[in-house]
Amino acid sequence: MEAQELPCVLIDCIGGKHGVYEDHAEFLKERFCLITMKEYLENKNFLGKKIRAIYMWYHKPVINEELLQSLPNLKIVASSGVGIDHLDLSLLSSYGVKVSNTPFIVSTDTADLGMALMLASSRRLVEGHQMAISPDTEYFPADWLGAEVSGATLGIIGMGTIGYKVAERAKAFEMKILYHNRKQRNKEEERAVGATYCKKIDDLLQQADFVMLVVNLTPQTHKLIGKRELQLMKPTAILINISRGLVVDQDALVEALQNKVIKAAALDVTYPEPLPRDHPLLKLKNVIITPHIGSATVKTRHLMKENMTESIQAGLAGLPIPNEVLL
């Protein structure tokens, strides 16, 4: 009996700056026939008909109508991470292509990073590290102070899975938790973390010592935080963004930080990524920027790989797709 041919799956590349990790590729090769974009472009007519799925590792390969037209048997796109702002869902649906992501797998690590950024910015850890290792440091000034986290007010904008996990962690710091969301959580969920719903985002901004952004990027959340919103915040407040860079008007943020409208910002996301090396945000001492590492742990990346694999296998078998993204 002949061995069954493995389904062909398009990937961007293996290894390098943006490619599928080499150890992940070995796992995938046991289940799929992997075709890189280079291989596909060199033999479009033959390989285009064989490709049945796209394994989209951190927004690569880029999917547009030209690519979809050349893949007549494409059934599913499995995308890593939570955000789907890099995908045109209507376009994919028009070609009968289903989409999955990995929202629940990344939530714990991303919430952890949100807390890490809050602690690092409030206690000025990056500045402190630089002072401690500087060859010019002769003493540690007694008036070099940070802000308290325990007992402070945290405003969470976006109370989905990640936002709720942030609230669970903040509760352990005895923080007062406010949140703004499209839909209010039920009373039992609110009581479990001690969270208070703010129907109006302005009410949250005016009260919070820390404002953490945990929303998906949509037309409604594009530049959700701009000059007006920053001016509503306390001058002692810190803005933390673990969602998407375009949720914040970066020009307005630079101005607010330079003019002490708010105290500081801690950003795991910017626009673009990375920022141009001469961007003013990179020159401000009251800003911490990390390289979009919300889900960047060994365990989570392995789980993402496994979840994406399960989604592709289900999609090709005509079974319900784990974490299918619906229009």
UniProtKB/TrEMBL annotation:
Any idea what this protein is called? Answer: Glyoxylate reductase/hydroxypyruvate reductase
Enumerate the spans annotated as D-isomer specific 2-hydroxyacid dehydrogenase NAD-binding domain: 115-294
Read off the Pfam families from this record.
Answer: 2-Hacid_dh, 2-Hacid_dh_C
Q: Which PANTHER family match?
A: 2-HYDROXYACID DEHYDROGENASE-RELATED, 2-KETOGLUCONATE REDUCTASE
InterPro entries, from UniProt?
D-isomer_2-hydroxyacid_DH, D-isomer_2_OHA_DH_cat_dom, D-isomer_DH_CS, D-isomer_DH_NAD-bd, NAD(P)-bd_dom_sf
Q: Which organism is it from?
A: Gallus gallus
Q: Which GO terms describe its cellular component?
A: cytosol
For the D-isomer specific 2-hydroxyacid dehydrogenase catalytic domain, which residue ranges apply?
A: 24-325
Alphabetically list the UniProt keywords: Oxidoreductase
Extract the GO molecular function terms from the UniProt entry.
glyoxylate reductase (NADPH) activity; hydroxypyruvate reductase [NAD(P)H] activity; NAD binding
